[in-house]
Amino acid sequence: MKKLLVLFAHPVFQTSLLNKSLLASLPKSTHITVHDLYECYPNFMIDVEREQALLNSHDVVMFQHPMYWYSSPAILKEWMDLVFEHGYAYGSNGTALRGKSFISAVTTGGDSSNFRGEANMRELLRPFELTAKLCNMTYLPPLVTSGGLRLKAQVQVDLGNNQQLQQKIKTYQRLIDDLLHDRITGDASQQYSTMNELLQSTLVNQND
Description:
Order of helices and strands: EHEHHEHEHHEEHHHH
Number of helices: 10
Strand content: 5-15%
Largest sheet: 6 strands, parallel
Distance between the termini: 28 Å
Oligomer: single chain
């Protein structure tokens, strides 16, 4: 079984229904590490050696964050600038991340219809894809969990009765399980813009 590192970045996590629900749904497992960057580094003083040690001990790296102005929250960019350094993550001697898998799990306040055409999620996350490839990592299409603002407006008391939220949680849980059990390959996934499409496709094939 693979070991998964969830690098979580949300500056106002306490207000995020989607991210609270997704993280709460993660199984209790020694194969999953959730690392909250804003909680660990409120002053952005990132411990590079600690972060590189975390990367070294995991097989799959997942950036989980909301979309902020078509990109990630600031601390994740700072983390990349410092941790993915030359001689460690890339360069002739920078082979520490070679062969590891990389994926983004992104949440949005708006609906999925806001991320089409030139603003499609695969294109918006291209810098992360190119970074992963530079570091010789296997890039997997992003999982997109959208409609956070609409869900928050609809949910009153009982989250368990909100079918849309529960479906999003199930998709997230399925991805996590597939990553842990190494069911998703880089080559097979590249034809899809998002992991949502891949998961839906395999679900349809299983039901045929």
